[in-house]
Amino acid sequence: MLIKSLLVLPLQMRVLFLVLVFMVSCSSDSEKVTVEQPAETSQYPILPSLDLNRDSFFLSSTHLIQLEVYKSLFLSPNCLYDIPGNLSSDAKEKLFEEIRKGYFAKSVFMDHEIKKYYHNFAHAMDVMVTTHMLLKTGGAIFLTQDEQALLLLAALAHDARHTGFMNSFLIKAGHEYAQKFDHESLQEKQSLSFLLGLLESHNLIQSGEDSKIKKFLSEVIIFTDMKRHKEQLQKLNAIMPQILSELKSARRGKDFDLILGSSSKDLKEKIDLSAKLDQNTRFLIASFLLHCADISNPGKDWEESERWAILVLHEFFQQGDFEKQKGMEISMNCSREKSSIPESQLGFGKYIIQELYDILLQLNHEAGSQFQKNFEANQLKWTNLREEEKRSGVPYFPPPRPPSSDAGWNGKG
Ligand SMILES: [Zn+2]
Question: Which runs of E-coded beta strand occur in 97-139?
Answer without folding.
Answer: 107-109, 112-114
